[in-house]
Amino acid sequence: MIRIAIVGAGKGGTSLLEILSEDPTIKITGVADRKKTAPGIRLAKALRIPTTADFKTLLKKKNDIIINVTGSPAVEAALQASKHEGVEIISGRSARLAWTLINERQKSQREAERLLSEYLSLYDLSLKLSSNENIAKLYATVIDYATDLTRTPAGSLTMFDEEHGEMVLVASKGFSRYFSRVRRWKVRKGGLTTRILNQKGVTVIENLKKSPKFNNPILLDEKVAAVAAIPLWNEGKILGILYVDDFQARSFSEKETSLLSLISTIAATTIGKAKVLEMTRLMAITDELTGLFNHRHLLQQLSTELSRT
């Protein structure tokens, strides 16, 4: 473990303390500043790290590195004159460089942890979808994960009715109760739906007010300002569209659109399989010519009703 003391508890010293205190390989032996109300002193006390008004007190401790962020030549001279053998004094530009390098390392570590968390969420999504036989719950789960991972307050899922050339709203989240009053609509040439369907990637509209060509009355009524949407493809066929919406104009990062794309792939595969299973089940209980329920279905229903009595 590396033992580090910090001289100077102003802005620079506080930033260093915040970064270094999170590293399990580092032990902060103490923080020094003449001002008892300095922000770094308050933080050190909160972290139960020894503090002192006299930096020379830190020289008596066993340290590997002393970081001087006071900017004082007199403090630097005193530290150099009194340091023990094997102790490194870092100050001036070297201290700023050390802070920058440590800060970047911490940022990279946090980013790696966040990525791991996001990919674990995607794995969890695939498990939940594969084990869910209720297609309505499956739709709702897809929207929940899509909105969570893209940090959006609302979202919806539509399925494509190829026979009638219509989109069908099957699930939504974060909208008013009036949003679902229109559950079907024709795919209009030149409209927003057509634009989304013509792209295999994510379509992003950062500000609907600045895109009058794609203004949708229902979205405007809901005060939606930004949209990201992606078509669901399965085995070369379009299944539907997954939307995430925000009520504030905003951009979507490359990471967010990438996550939305991954969610759409997982969702399309699972929904495709669920639809095949549903079709197989219907074929097993309906007459091929009339479309009416067959003898097998009647026996199943009779058995169910008898078990209830």
Explained architecture:
- The protein has 309 residues and is α/β, with parallel strands linked by helices.
- The chain has 2 domains: 2-106, NAD(P)-binding Rossmann-like Domain (Rossmann fold, 3-Layer(aba) Sandwich), CATH 3.40.50.720; 132-285, GAF domain (Beta-Lactamase, 2-Layer Sandwich), CATH 3.30.450.40.
- It has helices at 11-20, 39-46, 73-82, 92-130, 135-150, 192-197, 217-221, 254-285, 295-308, and strands at 2-7, 26-32, 51-52, 65-68, 88-91, 154-161, 166-173, 184-186, 203-205, 226-234, 237-246.
- The strands form 2 sheets. A 6-stranded antiparallel β-sheet has the order 8-7-6-11-10-9.
- Helix 1 (11-20) links the parallel strand 1 (2-7) and strand 2 (26-32).
- The radius of gyration is 31 Å and the shape is elongated.
- The model has no long low-confidence stretch (mean pLDDT 82).
Given as residue ranges, the uncertain stretches (5+ residues, pLDDT < 50) are none
> What is the number of domains?
2
CATH-derived topology of the largest domain: Beta-Lactamase
Query: What oligomeric state best describes the polypeptide chains here?
Result: single chain
CATH homologous superfamily title of the largest domain:
GAF domain
* Number of distinct helices: 9
User: Mean pLDDT, nearest integer?
Assistant: 82
User: Radius of gyration, Cα only, in angstroms?
Assistant: 31 Å
Number of beta-strand segments: 11
CATH class of the largest domain: Alpha Beta
How far do the termini sit from each other? 71 Å
CATH architecture of the largest domain: 2-Layer Sandwich
Largest β sheet strand count, sense and barrel closure: 6 strands, antiparallel
Tell me the series of helices and strands, N- to C-terminal.
EHEHEEHEHHEEEHEHEEHH
Q: Structural class per helix/strand content?
A: alpha/beta
Q: Can you give the helix content as a percent range?
A: 40-55%
Q: How are strands sequenced across the largest beta sheet?
A: 8-7-6-11-10-9
From the spread of the alpha carbons, the general shape counts as elongated
Strand content: 15-25%
